[in-house]
Amino acid sequence: MPGHLILVRPHMSLLDGLVVARYLHQIGGHCGYLFAVDPDYARHPFWRRALTWYGLVNGHQRMVALDQRSPMALRVILRTLEAGHGVVLFPQGTGISRPGRPDLPGAPWLARKTRCLVTEIRLDHSGWIPQVAYQGRDRRATHGVA
C-alpha cells in the first residue's frame, strides 16, 4: 500500500514546518511523518536537536535533510512512501525570500513513482505566525499530480 505525500505551499517562513507538524499532531491520525528539511537546519548541531525534539513532542514526526544537489534524501523519501508511510514536502524547496517560485520537479516524480495519496496544505502568512488555511482532500497520484 503506497504512502501519503503532503505538499505544503507556499513555503515563505522558517516556521512553516513547525506549524504543519503541530497541525498534523492536533488533527490526530497523522503521526510519524517524515519531513524533508533544508540541510542547513537538519544537519546543524543545535537545530537538528531542537527540530528532533519538536517532532517527537508533536506526533513523532521525523526529518531528513533534503539537499537539492544530492539524490540521497530523495531515495529515503521514496522508500518511505513505498513502505506505506507519510512524507511532508515543501515542493517549492528552499528560498523563502521568493514566495512565488515554482515547484521543483521532485514532488510530481515521487507521486507518480509511488502512486501514493497526495494531500495539499495551503498556508496563510498574513500574520506573524503562519496558519494552515486549507487542507485538500486526499487523492491518488496520477500523471499530472502536484
TrEMBL record:
GO molecular function: acyltransferase activity
Domain Phospholipid/glycerol acyltransferase: 5-126
Keywords for this protein: Acyltransferase, Transferase
Keyword Transferase in record: yes
Superkingdom of the source species: Bacteria
This protein's record includes keyword Acyltransferase: yes
This protein's name: 1-acyl-sn-glycerol-3-phosphate acyltransferase
Organism lineage string: Bacteria, Pseudomonadati, Pseudomonadota, Acidithiobacillia, Acidithiobacillales
